[in-house]
Amino acid sequence: MANKTRKDKKGYMLRTGECQRKDGRYSYAYTDRWKKRHVVYATSLVELRELEKQIRMDLDSGIDPNAAKTMTVNDVFDRYISRKYDLKPTTKSNYQFNYDHFVREGFGQEKIGKIRYSDVKKFYYDLMKERGIKPRTLDGVNTVLHSTFKMAVRDEIIRSNHAEGVMAEIKKSDLWVKTRRRGLTVPEQRELVEFMKDSHQFKGWVPVITVLLGTGMRIGECLGLRWEDIDLDKRLISVNHNLVDYQDRDIKKQVRKIQTTKTRAGVRMIPMIDEVYEAFITEFELQSAIGFCEEEIDGYSGFIFTTTDQKLMSRSAVNNALHRIVRIHNEEEEKKAKAEGREPILIPQLSAHHLRHTFCTRFCENETNLKVIQSIMGHSDITTTMDIYADATPEKKQEIMANLNGKIF
Fold this sequence. Notes:
This protein is mainly alpha-helical. It is built from 16 helices and ten strands.
């Protein structure tokens, strides 16, 4: 018996799975690869067949069209972050913060199957124009979203990564002005150290600030140092771990842990300059008199830099101290300069990372071997070193050019 043909009210033939309802709308029923039945609807046969074409393409590519329609960006991110087992706790915490703070409300509630390249681009522009976030922060948001869409592609929820290439276009726009971190100039650096040494209030911060300024270590590397990590006879510092503070979402509190260095290049030996050696000696003599650190974290103990009650020093304490030092110095310096009829030597607001940048700047001004600088700094990518090397102070550039007099012509 011949198959019975079905037609719609206009006389057009209907294919397998197609149907016209009593209200005039069209529907198409299909079964996905998981044997689950789905139905889609359209107001016209032309529109329905466009939907069918997309569904067949998705099914042929292994894409789950139903998931793309029902899952939000939030759903996919939550799946991504819960299965990202290789992330360090601090990195995971940063990802979670960036997503929750900038994406979850609004953009994150959109269905992932409806998001297109232009939507991601508009979202990034809106973050910069309306919320005023800095390029460095937008980089962090993009890292999270790009990874989320990448997992959605691998899980066959969507066909392509909608965040791919967006940042490259954003970086060409007038809105993208990435400010460089500036190290202290030589006069500013001297002013900072001398002010602390002469200040009864801040003298206790001299050892840790000196070590940060004289080694270029990251703040977590410096505060994680134990007495067994330094060799005072050979004047060497072994950098092999990192002290981190982060917000643990599971227990909803700030936690402190020891983890591996930021990158493999972070494991390194740093020779001590005289000022750093003296800072360690000063700290050792002080703790020999008042007591050594009694705190233990993840099996690590004997930490060098401590508070007055022998507790491990925190990065927030160091950064807060730097802010106070700069503020009080500048207030006093302005009064002093006014009384003496001269321009004040003011120190810009800074954090512990500015001290690392300052060390690298001084190193670049006095050393031409980029591989040596990269090794001491623990940079995994030499372009980071080269960027700072190219950013030497104007005074140093003038000095170098002056030395070329009579040597070129």
